[in-house]
Amino acid sequence: MTSRTPATAEAAAAVLRAGGIVAHPTEAVWGLACDPLQEAAVMRLLALKQREPGKGLILAAASPAQLDAFVDWEALPGARRGEIAAGWPGPHTWVVPATAAVPAWIRGDHAGVAVRVSAHPPLAALCAAFDGAVVSTSANRAGAPPPRAFEALDHAIAAGVDAVLEGATGGLERPTAIRDALTGTVLR
């Protein structure tokens, strides 16, 4: 396990800007964050997780405005936009129509992009300090259960991060549900 001193949101955001990977607590499990617009950082994160790029990644934000460059809000019916807005900030992840600005390394094999506006204080503070949306994916190897405590991170993953954001998970029983914003269908 890493013996790194936990970083503040500002220090962790600086690591993200420099192309690094940050382990961070989410609403339910520990996650890994990186700058979604730095392909090398995303590819490094995917390699660390041993995850196929085609699956796509979730973007987390501190406010809906941080997602504007990634989400084609106009492609959503008004009722769906209202339903999404009513649940944010909160533990609700939606697959929404993506703008042309969303790189393939974030979308994977999908036309949409998965997004969440988090109310969890450490993750929201990280996005606020970064001044934008971040990749937020569980800190586990593909197929392994996601860690509910930092101490449960796989040794290779813990050794592969550049910073650890201080804080604890939010106590949810399982990772956030993922729903299709166009149909309302639960995907996870």
Keywords:
globular; 188 residues; DHBP synthase; 8-stranded mixed beta sheet; 8 strands
Give the topology, please.
Layout: H1 9-17, E1 22-25, E2 30-34, H2 39-49, E3 58-61, H3 78-86, E4 92-97, H4 104-107, E5 112-117, H5 121-130, E6 134-138, H6 155-160, E7 163-164, E8 177-180
Parallel strand pairs: 1-7, 3-5, 4-8
Antiparallel strand pairs: 1-2, 2-6, 3-6, 4-5
Short structural description:
With 188 residues, this protein is α/β, with parallel strands linked by helices. It has helices spanning 9-17, 39-49, 78-86, 104-107, 121-130, 155-160, and strands at 22-25, 30-34, 58-61, 92-97, 112-117, 134-138, 163-164, 177-180.
Give an overview of the whole structure.
The protein has one domain: DHBP synthase. The mean pLDDT is 94. The protein has an 8-stranded mixed β-sheet with strand order 7-1-2-6-3-5-4-8, with helices on both faces. It is 26% helix and 19% strand. It has 6 helices and 8 strands; from the N terminus they run αββαβαβαβαβαββ. With 188 residues, it is an alpha/beta fold. The two termini are 30 Å apart. A hairpin with a 4-residue loop joins strand 1 and strand 2.
CATH superfamily: DHBP synthase
Shape: globular
* Number of E-type strands: 8
Q: How confident overall, as mean pLDDT?
A: 94
Terminus-to-terminus distance: 30 Å
How are the strands of the largest sheet arranged? 7-1-2-6-3-5-4-8
Question: Please, how many domains?
Answer: 1
Percent of residues in β-strands: 15-25%
The largest sheet is: 8 strands, mixed
SSE arrangement, N to C: HEEHEHEHEHEHEE
CATH topology: DHBP synthase
Low-confidence stretches: none
CATH C-level class is Alpha Beta
* Reported CATH architecture: Alpha-Beta Complex
> What gyration radius follows from the Cα positions, in whole Å?
15 Å
- Tally the helices: 6
